[in-house]
Amino acid sequence: MDQTLIIGLLAATLRIATPILLAGLGEVFAERAGVLNLGIEGIMALGAILGFVVAYLTGSLWAGLLAAMACGLLAGLLMGWLAVTLGLNQHVSGLGVTLLASGIALFFFRVLFKGTANPPQIDPFQQVSLPALGVIAPIFEQYWLTYFAFLLVPLAWWILYRTTFGLWIRAVGENPQAADTAGVNVARVRYTALAISGVLMGLGGAFLSLAQLGTATFGIVAGRGWVAIAIVIFGNWQPEKVLLGALLFGGVEALQLRLRAIGLQVPYQLLLSLPYLATIVALALAGRNASYPAALLKPYKREE
Amino acid sequence: MLGWRLEKGSSPLWMRALIPVLSILATFLLTATLLVFARANPFAAFYFMLVEPLSAPVSALEVLVKATPLLLAGLAVVFAFQAGYYNIGAEGQLYAGALAAAWVGQLTFAQTTPALIMIPLMLIAGFAAGMAWALVPALLRTQMGVDEVVTTLLLNSVMLYLINGILNAYWLDPVTFWPQSPRIAPSAEFQVIVPGSRVHFGLVVGLVVMLVLWWIINRTPLGLRMRAVGLGKDAARFMGVNVARMTLVAALVSGGIAGLAGVGEVAGIHHRLLEDISPGYGYSGIVIATLGALNPFGAGLAATFIALVDVGGQSVSRQLGIPSFLADVVQATILLVTLALLLLTRYRFRKVAEIAHGT
């Protein structure tokens, strides 16, 4: 491979990793607090589609971004009500949130763009370039949301491991009884973690429509939410390793795009499935060492 | 002071019977906001969704047509969930079954083989393909402890790309350029069982599977061991149950049943494989299994109801110009509302005198 190809591959890897990284970091907060947020795929769709709808109607990308985050927040709180307050089965209620969120998103999309064959286009966020030397300069031509996502990794690490709030999150995810005894409000910490997860998932979805594509389509999230959940397990619930998982998925996807471009004699749809298969393989390799938060999937009810 | 208190204990039967009514009422109130936004009358919308389809034989039978794949997908989920295996991959396994059925049905020998052989062959091929697609996540779970929820979800995406690729690369219609498989042989087609409708033999398959599953789960040692694993793996292991083997059996049979749902859509409805043969039946299967309280007969009722919402969603769309995604929203809302209300059946309200605690 020549130099420009590799540079292009790296640049694409960072871009493709962005939405998965954002959603994945959100999922880290939720799962570290002991709640599996399977609403992820639907919350991303909500962020992508409603974020786009609002940006289209108001003419402001920022308004769209805010709307996506607000929708994510609400969906995160709904997940909290179901999993924390009611203590329902997290698998089923999470999938319920996914069905509900994507159903609502598609409903509004159809109501507003009735009868238009092609979805409307907007001017998406532009890439900004960081000063860099010569040939590697194209790697640093990214959307600012990409830079933001990568900066979130050390921030998430710092919050989880260096702040009291992070300590609470890990405590309620490992041993809610002990945390409760120590005076931590288990429900409030879990709600907050789910709210954070929802906002980041909404943001991840909005990146797809407001930056990468400049439009919204029905299958816009296409399983990226499930990939985000996989890389959280792969990354052993640690932000820095989740970043590694996101880059791995992004790398395989970017490679797949290049293979398509050089006209490999394989149906391109099969290449499209490569990143998902690679994620499963990576999961299998990391699977043995996975150390799940001990209280994951377990609702906490205070003894009375 | 007197107050009402929630206490643990099973609720009276009338309250449990009230749950479906309350669920539908609450769902109506919650989704009415969407309908008002879309400038539609919520009462009219729900009339067209839940009542109008049942008022004419043609559309009422169409509900049964829709209920066929939904019932099988729901039963697949019931079987896995009973054993504590969260198979969220019914959608992919359904497509695997559809792919196998479409392939077997269009082979040259199918043209000269009688239906008596072809129909069982289609069912076996579909069941085996669904099992095969469920095998990898099941093995990863039992051998390496990899979470099946994630792997089955990822494999759904993989299967959709696979189907897309196969149809576009190998079965693309050379004349129309439609991505669809060749038509299956007439002897491989499921018979219509109600003349003048699309209700086909697949419904019989679904009902038989429903009865067999009920029998296995409630009346056999295998079912007992499976449920023991579902209730608690450590306790089951202590009872001497081979947990890994039970999990594997539950996962594979579940995948096979989901595969049958795909066979029904190919052999009974479309007579070929199309890209969008399932609008998410596999995911609806999770809704159906949950609403049916993981009981095969409950799944039967729930499948019929969700089929009504689906057919009704089309009808609302036609009559009032509302996006048919309303059906998805109603489905999800009913699921969440019912789950929340079911909690109430585990408690009872009791009038108590509040005692001032030292807290």
Subunit organisation of the chains: heterodimer
Helix amount of chain B:
55-70%
Helical element count of chain B? 13
Radius of gyration of chain B, Cα only, in angstroms?
22 Å
Helix % of chain A is over 70%
Q: Span from first to last CA of chain B?
A: 17 Å
Structural description of this entry:
The complex is a heterodimer of chains A (304) and B (359). Helix content of chain A is 70%, strand content 2%. The N and C termini of chain A lie far apart (66 Å). The mean pLDDT of chain A is 92. Chain A is mainly α and 304 residues long. Chain A is built from 12 helices and 2 strands; from the N terminus they run ααααββαααααααα. Chain B is mostly helical and 359 residues long. Chain B is built from 13 helices and 2 strands; from the N terminus they run βαααααααααααααβ. Chain B has helices spanning 13-37, 42-50, 57-82, 90-106, 115-144, 148-169, 202-219, 221-231, 233-238, 243-270, 281-291, 296-320, 326-345, and strands at 2-8, 347-353. Chain B has a two-stranded antiparallel ribbon with strand order 1-2. In chain B, helix 1 (13-37) packs antiparallel against helix 13 and helix 12 (296-320) runs antiparallel to helix 13. The longest helix of chain B is centred in the middle third of the chain and has 30 residues, at 115-144. Chain B is globular and about 75 Å long. The interface between A and B is large, with 46 and 46 residues.
Fold topology:
The complex is a heterodimer of chains A (about 300) and B (about 350).
Chain A: H1 3-32, H2 40-58, H3 61-85, H4 90-112, E1 127-129, E2 141-143, H5 144-162, H6 164-174, H7 176-181, H8 186-213, H9 224-234, H10 239-261, H11 268-272, H12 274-287
Antiparallel strand pairs in A: 1-2
Helix pairs in contact in A: 1-5, 1-8, 1-9, 1-10, 2-3, 2-4, 2-8, 2-9, 3-4, 3-8, 5-6, 6-8, 9-10, 9-12, 10-12
Chain B: E1 2-8, H1 13-37, H2 42-50, H3 57-82, H4 90-106, H5 115-144, H6 148-169, H7 202-219, H8 221-231, H9 233-238, H10 243-270, H11 281-291, H12 296-320, H13 326-345, E2 347-353
